[in-house]
Every structure is written in C-alpha cells, then in structure tokens.
C-alpha cells in the first residue's frame, strides 16, 4: 500500500451521485475529487493526476466517451465508467476506447468498492511481489515487467492497462490454460453477466495488436469455450 491516499477523480454532473460516491470513497481511505462536467474533468485530470477515474457518460457539455479518448492520449490511468445507460453498445464502446470497467446505476457500494480496489490493485501491483522483475521472452514477443512495456520484434506494442495485465497474467502461467473465469477474477476482481464479453473485447484487441491473424495461433492460443493459453516455445 502507498502511504499517501490514492486520488480518485469523479466526473459526474448529478450531485447526489457524486456526493454518494465521494462519501463512500472517503470513508474507505481514498481522496475523492469531483468534476461536474467533461471539461472540468479533463482539467482536473491533468492537474491532479488521479490514480483512478470514475466517469459518467451522460455529461452536460460533452459525451463522457470523449474523456476516455483524452485520458488515453495522456496515459493509462484506470477508468471505471459509471452510467445510467445499460445499452450493450455503450459498454462495448467505452471498453473499446480503453475504459477498464463499467458500473450501471444504481449500484451497491460494496460491489462498487470491490471494483475500485480491483482496478487500483491491477494498475499498481503488476508486477506483483511474486513476479521477478525481469523480462518474459517468447519468440518475437517480449514483456519488460520493470518498464511495463511489451514489444514485438523490438517494436513497442501499445496496450491499455487492462490488455497489458491480461498479457502479463497469461505469461505468468505460460503453457497453462486459464479459464475465462480465472482471467476475469484476476483482472477485474469479480464476474457478472458482461464479463465474458468484456474479456473477449480485450482479447480481440490484444490479438490484433500482436498481429495474430485468425487460424495462426501465435503467442496466445484461444482454447475455444474454455479460455486462453500463452504458448510455450514448443507451440511456436
Ligand atoms: Ca449524468
């Protein structure tokens, strides 16, 4: 754990919700910051450099999805989208743009806190204590745990935090199949009805970025209906 309180930026125009979220976070040892619209959110994001962002999509000045683009152009801070929209399309779009998780209002504070902890844990603690600070090399693929970077043929692969965490997790269990549930629980800390879709979206992006074409199972094998497996040298 860090000594100083972790800063969490809440971007939400409905005061009753931002106050509730803020109170829950403060009670649990975090330092909440509130922005009332997208523009203010961007400014506070740049000036306060939060550890995590809680983002409403329906904001008065701009679509919250714009904030995700802004944040992703400026680093890998985890974002949990908080929205009344229950439409599947919005969830997928937010995740595609680089949000790490999605909470639909109304939500329970215990579940909400579990999601916050999971995001802060994965973004701060990978590599964890049990991960040797060195490199993972598989053919042309290299993971530098120290620098948090992945390269392919020496070229950097631009992964989101979630995508990076999934690749690192699979590399830790190289050669073993991790089920969808294994991966989901490790990465997000909980599982619900949209978890598999969320994992599939992330995995499709990872495969695209690692230039894995369908039928050519390099690096990460898709064990249909079961899960995923990082190849051994013998698979390549
Ligand atoms: Ca709103």
Tell me the layout of helices and strands.
Blueprint (H helix, E strand, L loop, with lengths): L6 E5 L3 H13 L3 E5 L2 H11 L3 E5 L7 H9 L6 E5 L4 H10 L3 E4 L4 H17 L9 E4 L2 E4 L4 E4 L2 E3 L3 H12 L4 E3 H9 L6 H15 L10 E4 L3 E4 L6
Parallel strand pairs: 1-2, 1-3, 3-4, 4-5
Antiparallel strand pairs: 6-7, 7-8, 8-9, 10-12, 11-12
Bound molecules: calcium ion (CA).
Determine the mean pLDDT: 86
Q: End-to-end span in angstroms? A: 39 Å
The neighbouring-strand order within the major sheet is 2-1-3-4-5
DSSP strand tally: 12
**Unreliable sequence segments:** 125-131
Order of helices and strands: EHEHEHEHEHEEEEHEHHEE
Give the count of helical stretches: 8
Beta-strand content:
15-25%
Strand-pairing-aware structural class: alpha/beta
User: What is the percent of helical residues?
Assistant: 40-55%
What does this structure look like?
It is a single chain. The chain is elongated, with a radius of gyration of 18 Å. It is of the alpha/beta class. Helix 2 packs parallel to helix 3 and helix 6 crosses helix 8. The chain is built from eight helices and twelve strands. Calcium ion binds next to loops.
């Amino acid at each position: 754990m860090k000594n100083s309180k972790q800063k969490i930026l809440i971007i939400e125009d409905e005061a009753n919700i931002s106050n509730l979220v803020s109170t829950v976070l403060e009670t649990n040892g975090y330092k909440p910051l509130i922005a009332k619209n997208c523009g203010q959110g961007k400014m506070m994001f740049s000036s306060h450099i939060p550890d995590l962002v809680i983002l409403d999509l329906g904001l008065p000045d701009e679509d919250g999805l714009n904030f995700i683009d802004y944040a992703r152009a400026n680093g890998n801070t985890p974002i949990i989208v908080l929205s009344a929209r229950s439409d599947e399309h919005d969830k997928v779009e937010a995740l595609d743009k680089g949000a790490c998780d999605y909470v639909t209002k109304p939500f329970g504070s215990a579940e909400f806190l579990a999601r916050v902890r999971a995001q802060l844990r994965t973004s701060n603690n990978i590599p964890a204590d049990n991960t040797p600070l060195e490199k993972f090399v598989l053919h042309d693929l290299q993971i530098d745990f120290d620098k948090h970077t992945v390269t392919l043929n020496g070229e950097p692969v631009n992964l989101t935090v979630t995508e990076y965490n999934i690749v690192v997790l699979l590399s830790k269990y190289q050669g073993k199949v991790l089920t969808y549930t294994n991966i989901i629980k490790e990465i997000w800390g909980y599982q619900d009805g949209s978890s598999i879709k969320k994992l599939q979206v992330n995995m499709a992006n990872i495969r695209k970025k690692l230039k894995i074409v369908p039928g050519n199972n390099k690096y990460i094998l898709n064990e249909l209906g079961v899960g995923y497996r990082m190849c051994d040298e013998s698979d390549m």
